[in-house]
Every structure is written in structure tokens, then in C-alpha cells.
Amino acid sequence: MKFHYEFDIQSPDKLISHQQQLLLIGSCFTENIGEKLSKHKFTVLENPNGILFNPVSVSEAITQYIENKTFAVEDLFTLNESWHSWKHHSRFSGITPEDAIEKINQSTKTAHEFLKHADQVMITLGSAWVYTLTEKAVNTRKGAVAANNHKAPADWFAKKLLTTEEVLSMLDHMIHRLFHFNPKLQIIFTISPVRHLREGVIENNKSKAVLIQAVHHLVEKFDRLYYFPAYELVIDDLRDYRFYAEDLVHPNYHATQYVWEKLVNACMSEETRSLLKEIDAIRLAAQHKPFNPSTQQHQQFLQTYLNKAVQMEKQYPFISWKDEIVYFESCLKK
Hints:
- The protein is of the alpha/beta class.
- The protein has helices at residues 28-39, 55-67, 97-117, 164-181, 201-221, 230-238, 253-267, 270-287, 296-315, 322-332, and strands at residues 21-26, 43-46, 77-79, 82-84, 120-125, 129-133, 157-161, 186-191, 225-227.
């Protein structure tokens, strides 16, 4: 008896490997996958502007990285005793404008340099709903899209659903800029399975439909674009509230793990998948908490995995094993 519908996932032309650099940008689901990539020792830069949900903010952020835009105090506004940017997540806010500007410009510079040499850009779009700023909002032009509301008053914003044509236009322009800036890039699009129920159930589905139609049109138009069906895996394959957190909005650990395993199988080579198993074994060994660390058995356990980490560092010099080696060595000295 089948309790969920599984479907085949086509692989991209260029598979993900540890030798590559991956820039991830988009919704909070981006950070779920980014965390797993980082734990498995891929070279990842994740959300240099913080979490971004809509395609306008994603396109603007990528353009800033390409141009290596420098932000100034004049680009910020103050609210609730902190300084903020309408283009950045609150984690870039600061008690002083200098603090916020330093964090923003350093992150943009890092993204600019990373994107020059990146092999993959994974873009996860969350919602086609945007919140444009009204005449009551401070230090902005009316109609500009806010990437984050920073808990500003509700009358500072007006809600709008982007059309498919608007999404197509801005993403098309962004893709041309990306390929001109870095011709070797492959772009992986995903639609976030996070349900934006704050907008309403029907409104959320309208939003996802806009994004899906726009992205598939672009994937069919451009070479080196690939669609990974994270949304469909949760909504159509798992299709059960057991795979959501208590808020019934965010996929839970099991759903995220399922999507991760599908990503690994569809988008990584057999060699990379084998390497992931080796990495997992060493990571788990480094997390092991013995009842009695001074026993000969545990010391031998540590030495075995220290030797494995050293061997892996020689065999795969493009992967850093420094933390694990330092950990095993420090434990052996006790």
C-alpha cells in the first residue's frame, strides 16, 4: 500500500560537488538547505542580505552583489532605537548607523567576490506578494519594495501581488546580468514549500502559482537553469500535516530531511554521495559524548577518527577538516 506519491526528479546538467562554490539566496527554506550543505562541508555563502521572500528583493540583492554597491548612512532609517535598511534583514540592523553600514557593506563585498567565482546559485522564491512603501514610510521612495518590515507601522506598507509578467521581467534581467558577470554559473530555482498563510490560503496559492509559472518559463528559455521541486516534494509527495511544524506553515525536520535526500540523489554524483557518508561518520564521531572519556576504548576511538580525518584532508584537499582534527587531538591530550 502506498501512503505518498513519489515522482522522478530530473538531474541538472552540472551536478553539485565539493569543488564548487554555492551561493544560496531566498526564503527561510534556503537556510534549511544551506545549513545541511555547510554541515556536509560544501563551500556555501548563504543569504548575504538575510532572508528574502519575494523576487523583487532577490533580484535587487543579486544586482547589488554584481555591482558591489556601497551603502551609506543616507540609505538607512531609524526605528525603535535601531538603524535599518529596507533592503536587508533585521540581522543587519544596528544600534548606530555605522554599525549597520559596516555589516551591510562587508556582506555585500563578500558576496561580490564569492559570486565572481561561484559555480551554482540556488534561488528559493517564497512569495509573489510584495509590501511596497507608502508616503508615510521614512527615508524611501513611494512604491519601493521592502525586503523586511522591521516591525514598522502597518500604514507604512501597501500589499500587492506581482503578476507573472512582472516576475518574468525582473528575473529575466537578473539572469542576463548574472551570466554576463559569471559565465560559468548554473542557476537552480526552487519554490519554497513554506505556506504564507498570513496572506490567506487562497492568496498563498495564487502567489505560488505566479512564481511557478514564471520560473518554469525561464527554465525552458535559458540553458544552465534548473528547477528543483522542493515545493512539490512537500506539497504533493509528502502531502501531510505531519510534515509541518506546529504552526502548520513551516516544513519540519523530517520534511526538510526528505527534501535534502532528494536533492542529494538528483543533483549530486555518486562520488559526492559516497563522500557525504564519510563526512557524516566523522561528524558523528566528533559529536559523540562518552560516559568516561579516559577509557582506552574511547581513546582508540578518537585516534581512529583522527586518522580518518587526516587521511580525508590529504585525499580531498579542497575540504577543510581543521575543526575535527583539532577536536580529536585535544581530546587525546586529556
